[in-house]
Amino acid sequence: MRWYALGVSLTTFLITVGAYLNGYDPDIAGLQLRQVIPWVPDLGLGWSVGADGLSMPLILLTSFITTLACLAAWPVTFKPRLFFFLLLAMDGGQIAVFAVQDMLLFFLAWELELIPVYLLLAIWGGKKRQYAATKFILYTAVSSLFILLVALAMAFSGGGPVSFEYSDLAAKHLGAGFQALCYAGLLIAFGVKLPIVPLHTWLPDAHGEATAPVHMLLAGILLKMGGYALFRFNASMFPDAHVQFAPLLVVLGVVNIIYAALTSFAQRNLKRKIAYSSISHMGFVLIGIGSFSPLAASGAMLQMISHGLIGASLFFLVGATYDRTHTLQLDEMGGVGQRMRKMFAMWTACSLASLALPGMSGFVSELMVFVGFATDDAYTLPFRIVIDGAAAIGVILTPIYLLSMLREIFFGQEKPELSDANLVDAEPREIYIISCLLVPIIGIGLYPKLVTDSYRATIEQVVARDESSMKALTAPYLPLRSAPKLS
Amino acid sequence: MPSAAEVAWLIPLLPLVGATLVGLGLISFNRTLNRLRTPVAALLISCVGGSAVLSYGVLLEQLNGAAPYEQLFTWASAGTFNLQMGFCVDPLGAVMLALVTTIALLVMVYSHGYMAHDKGYVRFFTYLALFSSSMLGLIVSPNLLEIYVFWELVGMCSYLLVGFWYDRDGAAHAAQKAFVVNRVGDFGLLLGILGLFWATGTFDFEGMATGLSTAMADGQVAGWAAVALCLFVFMGPMAKSAQFPLHVWLPDAMEGPTPISALIHAATMVAAGVFLVARLEPLYNLFPQVLTVIAVVGTITCFLGASIALTQMDLKKGLAYSTVSQLGYMMLAMGCGAPVAGMFHLVTHAFFKAMLFLDSGSVIHAMEEVVGHEPVLAQDMRLMGGLRKKMPITASTFFIGCVAISGIPPLAGFWSKDEILGQAFGSFPLLWAVGFLTAGMTAFYMFRLYFLTFEGEFRGTDSAVQQQLLAAAGKGDETVHGHASSPHESAWPMTVPLMLLAVPSVLIGLLGTPWNNRFAGLLNPAEALEMAEHFSWEEFLPLAGASVAISVAGIGLATAAYALRKVDLGTAVAGRFPAINAFFANKWYLDALNDKLFVQGSRKLARQVLQVDSKVVDGVVNLTGLVTLGSGEGLKYFETGRAQFYALIVFGGVIGLVVIFGALG
């Protein structure tokens, strides 16, 4: 069973890699690898997929993480068939989210992917799984209603034939008020997913109850759907509204970084701690999206990829540690580094990656956001100083909670309560999974152009459009700087 | 054949390759590799050795007047932004390269002896090689951003090495403290780098200085903003080079193995801050205010370190505070606009302080045979004494180190410290006075360490003192696990590096005599010429004589108090001024303040935010859920199955709508 699942996910991964290598030219900003099959032509419904710089890296990430999640799910013994079925269904749903080019289809894919997550949480979760699963499904289902509403509203307004195709929707000239309304609706929908504080409370519960492979997918890919969609819809389709909302995004991003880092520090439950750390890292994505600098936007995209890898690795390690200690409470752990040295080494490596150590991907992406935002002339100087300064506080907070966590789990003398626990050191399968994740993490950290080049053209196109509508703005409001630009 | 400068990229790369290979081996074939201690050590030592050979090649080329060499490639790009990385060698870098590789090499040889019985031997050598690689990378960095990258990496290595004995709680806390305090400095450094990039559009050292001055001339950047940016950047060196008030991590970092204290926390990494300030000289020279701040911070640090060192009973802690104090001297030199003097003190200090730390390691190693592997006992000088007869090599090299750091001519410390004091005398007479006083304190506390450790009677077997110390450390119930009654001199891998380090500790100062300063001649030929021209014995002798006099006074006091026991300082000073004594002994209460304000404060804040998160934010969500549930519960009674009832509701609804629209329309 698990071999089958692994085979399928691996094949998917290889196909996506093949598509990337053969059919994809990173220098083209527009869509590639198109496939369009009309379904209900009268309503403009159809099967329409393709990939551009926004989707391609995330599709690769999805198939990569899913393959590793299948490997991580090796010890699942409870209803394995259903488990692996759901895992693969999730894979399909997520790739579809990134690949489809039709908003109604997007909505379907978005919903399709929720069901496996719900079931995976509700059946294989921890003690409070019912509560967590229900919360998750309510949160996301309610928020995705907004997607449907906006999709319908957009398709039927603005004149022209009814179509849900992204390119048709983007070409429509919509009124400012209508744009803002659509933008706000989508912001709520995707803000739940990313998540944006205060729409985040489903995440610690869902993460706190999920098993390790589900965790990897939740942190690795699910959160990125929010960021991707913000890029795809909010930033690309409503440039005028984006100009109005961008400062809000930036402020929310900083709130995310600091607020979640503080909560993470106070958390005593390991899974919830890492979950909040994910929220904190997503703040950089928000700042990047809200800026008008190609560098910062590029950094946001890289942060999604980077966090996909780092988050997945940390959550996998949480699962692997839980299998041994049978507790997630930090107070009940301590000194487990004595017997689990390799585990300790992997934890240290991944935590350092997460706290943005240079030489690893997190550093590059956060630095790109920092530098990009600091040099973004769209915002006034005081605003930039405050935002960059506040975001840099995250640079201090992240090591505080991550290193405290390491200290409490691994350092010191082993707690006597743990003497019964079977603290065997990491097995080859686990080392293999972590190395698979660390190789791209370090690879990106050493030479980021490897990845940034694959989406550079698309991001620049998106930002250029937003920037031009920013410049066309007649009555700019704080903290946006009015034209002419400071040279 | 390419010149050494052209292949300088190999200097950081060689140890990195070695460390990576061994690291991968440790993960994959842990047991096998842990058995291959000597081959692993030989491999890593030869990697660092290769770097050392190249470094000396680079230094020779620079001495022969080769031009600085730089090579760059595009590392990241987006939009119009291009970020270059690469490597560069110039005289400043060449000196540091030679220094770091030399000390790293000697420390590795020493570690072969010191860590011989440690089960983490291979891991230790891997970390050492990794550290050497990052430190060398930092030195060859051609721009501020690349320095920041390696800056963080050396911090990580320091974290790993301070926490090397991870079963000790003290080590765990110290490692975390070191990393977090350094991150506070890096916060400023990062913001400063961002600001400077915004103002000048470059990360290049020279480019930033010229860019900033033109930007100020054009009125694009206000003067106060430029000063603020420079001060922000200075926060990085403040943390890394343990300057007040960010010095608090360095004494705690002594929890790491002693070779680490010698290499990282005395000779190389902590000097990186001074090195960075020297690199940024063109920038800082634009702003006299910034230089003043640097000089004042350096002087405070200098005095603070020495004053705390006066009362320390832990041998390593004493040396650590001495390092803090000496780093303060270097910063003072930077603040006086004399980076050459500061760099010269960095070099001389690196040799004798590394030697002193390795000596203390040798002592601790010997003490552990008597009192067991308990740092509270093995490092406390109340249990030492009389070690000179038992460990002659260690004692004599320690003595040389004491004389060198006290500033007695012609040993190394005299020339470099005197140059700094001379510069300070010209720029900030008040700061000179403090530095001058500190020189006397330095001589006193160093000889206090020497006499307590090596002279008198051996007190290590005094079980009353042992129990007292254990009780004071809260470990009263532990027993002492010694297996020898008297300590022995260490084996050759430990003594040979000591003897080798003694040579430069004595002689290297002669490279920087004020009348023929060959060191300045390499770094800044114009300045050296000027110094030689303006040199006059009439100016030199009074200042130098005063320095020597106060040092001799300090040594004399220490001799009277601790060797001859003529003066009882305990009653004479500590008894008469208990407040001052307590102030120094409690490290100016900075640790307590730090703990109360930042550690407890941040924990409390975090807990409050978490409360808000789970009660307020999540509370609203759950309340919504509850209301929905409640309304559903209520509504279910309407589901009666009677069609008339439904019709009634529909009818009521329609009426309601009509009324509403009527009212609106």
Describe the fold and architecture.
The complex is a heterodimer of chains A (about 475) and B (about 675). With about 475 residues, chain A is mainly alpha-helical. Chain A has 2 domains: about 1-235, no CATH class; about 245-485, no CATH class. Chain A has helices spanning about 1-25, 55-70, 80-100, 105-125, 130-155, 165-170, 175-195, 200-210, 210-235, 240-265, 270-290, 295-325, 340-355, 360-375, 380-410, 430-445, 450-470, and strands at about 30-40, 45-50. A two-stranded antiparallel ribbon of chain A has the order 1-2. The radius of gyration of chain A is 22 Å and the shape is globular. Mean pLDDT of chain A is about 85; it is low at about 480-485. With about 675 residues, chain B is mainly alpha-helical. In chain B, β1 (about 70-80) and β2 form a beta hairpin. In chain B, α4 packs parallel to α16 and α16 (about 340-370) runs antiparallel to α19 (about 390-405). Chain B starts with 9 loop residues before the first helix and ends with a helix. The model of chain B has no long low-confidence stretch (mean pLDDT about 85). At the A-B interface, α5, α10, α12, α13 and α14 of A face α1, β1, α6, α7 and α29 of B.
Brief sketch in words of this structure:
Chain A is mostly helical.
Please describe the topology of this protein.
The complex is a heterodimer of chains A (487) and B (665).
Chain A: H1 2-23, E1 32-40, E2 45-51, H2 55-72, H3 80-99, H4 103-124, H5 129-156, H6 166-171, H7 176-193, H8 202-209, H9 212-237, H10 239-266, H11 270-290, H12 294-325, H13 341-354, H14 361-374, H15 381-410, H16 428-446, H17 449-471
Antiparallel strand pairs in A: 1-2
Helix pairs in contact in A: 1-2, 1-3, 2-3, 2-9, 2-12, 3-4, 3-9, 4-5, 5-7, 5-8, 7-9, 7-10, 8-11, 9-11, 9-12, 10-11, 10-15, 10-17, 11-12, 11-14, 11-15, 12-13, 12-14, 12-16, 12-17, 13-15, 13-16, 14-16
Chain B: H1 10-28, H2 30-35, H3 37-63, E1 69-78, E2 81-89, H4 91-114, H5 121-140, H6 144-162, H7 169-200, H8 205-217, H9 223-240, H10 249-252, H11 258-267, H12 271-279, H13 281-284, H14 288-309, H15 315-335, H16 339-371, H17 375-378, H18 387-390, H19 392-406, H20 412-427, H21 429-454, H22 463-472, H23 492-507, E3 512-513, E4 516-517, H24 518-523, H25 525-534, H26 537-563, H27 569-574, H28 578-585, H29 590-635, H30 643-664
Helix pairs in contact in B: 1-3, 1-5, 3-4, 3-5, 4-5, 4-11, 4-16, 4-23, 5-6, 6-7, 7-8, 7-9, 9-12, 9-14, 11-16, 12-15, 12-16, 14-15, 14-21, 15-16, 15-20, 15-21, 16-19, 16-20, 16-23, 19-21, 19-23, 20-21, 20-26, 21-26
